[in-house]
Amino acid sequence: MHIYLLLAHPDGESFCGALADAYEAAAKAAGHEVRRQDLGALAFDPILHKGYREIQELEPDLVQAQELIRWCEHWVIIYPVWWGSVPALLKGFMDRAVLPGFAFKPHDEGPLWDKLLKGRSAQLITTSDAPSLYLLLAYRNSDVAMMKKAVLDFCGIKPVKLTRLGSMKGASDEKRATYLETVRRLAGR
Asked: 164: which DSSP letter?
């Protein structure tokens, strides 16, 4: 399987970075072809200055991201939940890379659109200081609503599976090791 792995934590040395390393190694060991990008290392302007009224020229890292999205059969995105949502850099990446004409095509008449990224699946792996149940009850999984429904499904990517790794604040080394093993098992499928 062709897997596009996107580490969407701006700090590659974070626990999300360790999860991405574990996923990548296990997926390759299972025979999958993995191509990875770390958002914190990419050079692009995350601000969509004129909305979609005028498409900004894509920086080389975003061109490569689009090539990886086209290439992949499965897109894995690892990110922390901050303020009940995704990191700003991930939102900016989606705004800039997942564009009309590339990921979806609005119909000339009416409110419908064509989903141009059909045939791919996705896996969201999230970390948070809050317990996973709290994210559901307090925020109704607002980050997932955005990523799964408003971005990935909107463009035709499904199924989109979710793995929540909560209660990170103060998590023991044993708990973190369990989370790393969970991610390795996901990658090995």
From this structure: E
What is residue 27's three-state secondary structure? helix
**Structural domain span for residue 67:** 2-7+32-129+143-172
The alpha helices in 30-87, defined as continuous H runs, are 60-71
pLDDT 10s digits, 104-116: 999 999 999 999 9
pLDDT band for position 154 (cuts 50, 70, 90): very high
Give the count of alpha carbons within 13 A of 132, CB side only: 9
How many domains does one find in the chain?
1
- C-alpha 117/C-alpha 156 separation (Å) is 5
Beta bridge mates, 162: 124
Q: Kindly report the CATH number assigned to the domain that includes residue 48.
A: 3.40.50.360
Half-sphere exposure of 146 (CA within 13 A, CB side): 15
